[in-house]
Inverse folding.
């Protein structure tokens, strides 16, 4: 009888720590234990892990962006593009959180074939998907309570009056020369909508793309939202930084844009 009870207790313990979630692409991601060694492959996936309460489980991160002081001791496994496969393997991660459109498809395919690593692909198309990813990663890491609190804080932060007013058309500048902007297949459109704006090129079924100088001249009178960094710690530079990464810090960018939008409303 005692052995039976111990076996039942062990089974319940295993069920309590096992988790299966769905990533942004609809793929099932499962672990039979809490994620203990996590590698992130882009700045925004690092932000997601921090928001999920799993900072202590990070063993490797991607270079690029502003690295929090608490994470600067961690090894880099490459950039948001190419990764160092040898370095990643040596870190023995049980969970890798990747950026589907930012990391190389060949690297993601290699990771997907590794049976000892769970791969979570992040590709947010809406603000809700960011909150959902925080919750999902918290479940995988056993920090569901912390993740839920931070996911709700994010949802609360982006819930404002600007989403209810007529959107103001704007030009999004990714780069000035040659002029680069974004179309409708980009997560930034969801952030703009939450702040009371509409991307002038939202009807274009593309992500980031280059436009002709004539097209840039045609939208010269539209309000400009630039993602070009100046690194001078100005409000515009902070906005460009926050708006460039599809992570939890988008809440600050939405708040800044919403304030600007309300100030321009008669």
């Amino acid at each position: 009888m005692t052995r039976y009870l111990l076996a039942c207790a062990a089974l319940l313990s295993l069920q309590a720590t096992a988790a299966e979630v769905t990533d942004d692409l609809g793929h099932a991601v499962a672990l039979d234990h809490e994620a203990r060694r996590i590698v992130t492959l882009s700045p925004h996936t690092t932000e997601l892990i921090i928001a999920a309460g799993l900072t202590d489980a990070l063993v490797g991160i991607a270079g690029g962006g502003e690295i929090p002081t608490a994470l600067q001791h961690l090894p880099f496994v490459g950039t948001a593009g190419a990764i160092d496969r040898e370095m990643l393997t040596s870190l023995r991660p049980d969970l890798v959180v990747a950026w589907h459109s930012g990391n190389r498809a060949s690297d993601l395919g290699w990771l997907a074939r590794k049976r000892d690593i769970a791969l979570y692909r992040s590709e947010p198309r809406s603000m809700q998907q960011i909150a959902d990813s925080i919750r999902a990663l918290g479940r995988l890491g056993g920090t569901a309570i912390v993740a839920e609190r931070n996911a709700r804080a994010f949802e609360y932060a982006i819930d404002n009056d600007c989403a209810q007013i007529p959107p103001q058309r704007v030009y999004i500048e990714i780069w000035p020369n040659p002029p680069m902007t974004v179309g409708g297949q980009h997560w930034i459109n969801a952030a703009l909508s939450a702040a009371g704006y509409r991307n002038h090129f939202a009807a274009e079924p593309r992500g980031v793309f280059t436009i002709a100088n004539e097209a840039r001249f045609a939208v010269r009178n539209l309000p400009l939202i630039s993602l070009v960094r100046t690194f001078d710690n100005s409000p515009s530079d902070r906005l460009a930084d926050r708006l460039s990464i599809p992570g939890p810090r988008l809440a600050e960018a939405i708040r800044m844009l919403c304030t600007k939008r309300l100030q321009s409303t008669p």
